[in-house]
Amino acid sequence: MTLEEKARCVVGIKRSDFPPTNKGICARTAPFPSYGIPTLALADGSSGVHLSRREKDRATAFPSSMALASSWDTALAKEVGTVAGYEALRYNINVLLAPGINIIRNPLCGRNFEYYSEDPVIAGNIGAAYVNGVQGNGIGTSVKHFICNNQETNRGHNNALVSMRALREIYLKGFEICVKEASPWTIMTAYNSLNGLPVQENPWLISAVLRGEWGYDGLVMTDWSIVPHNTAAQLHAGNDLFMPGSDNQVQDIVEGVRNGRIDIADLDRACSKVIQLGQRTWHGSKNKAPDLKRGASLSKRVACESAVLLKNEGMLPLAAKGTAALFGVRSYDLVAVGSGSAFVVCPHVIQLIDAFREAGIAADAELEDLYRKYVAFASADIAYNEKIKVHIGLPLLPELELRRSLIDKAAERNDYAVITIGRTAEEGKDRNLQDDYYLSDTEKELISMVCEAFHAKGKQVALVLNLAGIIETETWKDQPDAILNVWLPGQEGGTAVCDLLTGKANPSGRLAVSFPVDYFDCPSAYNFPFEHPEEGKNYDFTDYAEDIYVGYRYYCTKGVKVSYPFGYGLSYTTFEYAMPKVKAGKKSVSVSFTVRNTGAVPGKEAYGIYLTAPSGGLDKPALELKAFGKTRMLSPGESEIVRVELPAEAFASFNEEAGEWQIARGKYTLSIGAEAEKPRLMMEFKRN
Ligand code: BGC
């Protein structure tokens, strides 16, 4: 290749140069037909393949990543990757720009729904499973956003100030697991800076840690250049592909090599990575639409397995008979997926009201008429005003204010109520505290009025949460009789909610994030732009002052009460844990125990294995998740033996002064069970 060709090879091409097919994808690499190098198509894909609304093609919308992680099931995450990869293959897409595995550091980050967990072991392993699923089709993934892209406010310039220990143990850990377990074919470097240097220009991160220490052999691409960078520094740091690409970057590279600012060896490395990606992902043209039925049934299953039952005071599963009063706009207009690049243009979204009807459950016609008219009228208005936002989601309709008399009448006519409260979120901005993290006054009034009216008649109320991120629950959670959190449940969401409420499906999801009592209890509360940027604050940097004490690591260690803890989730059955065994070897520790379904209905049980390190040495969290999983479906009375091998490295902490991982000597405790502070079994072992 000539110098100019090499430069073009590592820079994405303009949309006007895309081939006429697949305009709906977001980027392409340059083709070189004379060398047999095809153009590669890249599309977003954390909840399914992101195609443009302008195209007629549709793809399956799966539950959001935050939901998927609540399944605590890596096999399920792999299945989602497999089907998303299959749909990508059929649409001639070579790389899915997913999964996002950044740590959920603060509840207000606008992209939390695209991420998995506040814990790196969950984020890394669920991410690895997704990657393995997608790549099994010969389609690449792009694990993103490397690294510390934990907020959206000022995302292009924000400087994350993070200690080396927190970086190693929390923020890099998930990426390390994912790289080692799944060898993703691409990694996307984030927009932000880390400790003063743009991560895209940081050779220590990309070349020394990612490639050197972890042995990563794939391609590194930049996130979508919303801010100009130093092209030479990006290339030298280890980026191989500049996205979405501009002529200026091509010129920069050509001139850089000519005037010695760019080492030709860096350009050759980048070129060879682009060619390697092509060899891995080029399959010729398929021109065969995917069978979307496959995705639809999996999407529903994932929604059922990811839902977390937060409260159930003798209400669920619903008795088969009776009529339901469905309240809340989201009962009629579900938020299936989040907005921004993770949005999926899917064939349909099943609404809760339609799923109830399909299941033969009578729903109140008067409420239905009222809400449907509101949704139709208000969405037409929003769709008109937001016409340009064709490829991403639309803003949510505000909750409808209802008169008390209307609710009282509904309480007379119906046997129980279901209220759905929803949230969306999108990249580029963080969530607000008021009317988003905290419920709006209208929502609070709706919950109080419906609960009062139905309880006065001796009738019960279930609340369905349809969330893109966590919300405040402590001040109102005592009112409804049951609370089911289904996150953003994907296109089949309504059916999944109906199956879960009626007991056709048994909830088995567990929280992979904690719900604090109040936003300001959160360890990063004050070190996050929780006030809107318009209010004149300067958000040039974010101090990760909580260090390694992120999420439950903080709440458990400092004894801070939460509303719903990490690992929490109820079931319609009960499980007994027994036969704990632990055997400590030099290289690993073998753990085994049995889980038995002691209830009356079939169910699955998610479990975690938490470690408490010996005291002395480095300061450590009270509990750290080291492994997790889920049993198969167990019938009443049936049991499963769980066997887990924990490698010695799992016990290491990063000593900043020594600049190395160290394993403390002494007595370790393992707490078994999904909920960190409610172990079902405990075991001890020693390391000398
Ligand atoms: C986002 C990435 C996404 C890319 C392409 C960027 O703005 O940060 O996550 O993959 O756009 O859509």
Condensed summary:
The chain is an alpha/beta fold and 688 residues long. The relative contact order is 0.12.
Which secondary structure elements does this structure contain, and how are they paired or packed?
Elements lengths: L2 H7 L17 E2 L12 E4 L20 H5 L4 H17 L4 E3 L22 H16 L4 E7 L12 E3 L2 H8 L1 H10 L3 E4 L3 E2 L2 E2 L4 H11 L5 E4 L8 H7 L9 H12 L5 H18 L10 H15 L1 E5 L10 E5 L24 H7 L3 E2 L1 H21 L18 H10 L2 E7 L10 H5 L3 H16 L3 E7 L15 E4 L7 H10 L12 E2 L24 E3 L8 H7 L3 E3 L10 E10 L3 E10 L8 E7 L11 E7 L8 E9 L4 E4 L4 E4 L2 E7 L8 E7 L1
Parallel strand pairs: 2-3, 3-4, 4-6, 5-7, 5-17, 6-9, 11-12, 11-13, 13-14, 14-15
Antiparallel strand pairs: 1-2, 7-8, 10-15, 16-18, 19-20, 20-23, 21-22, 21-26, 24-25, 26-27
Helix pairs in contact: 1-9, 3-4, 3-11, 4-6, 7-8, 11-17, 12-17, 14-16
The structure holds beta-D-glucopyranose.
The site of beta-D-glucopyranose has 8 residues, from loops.
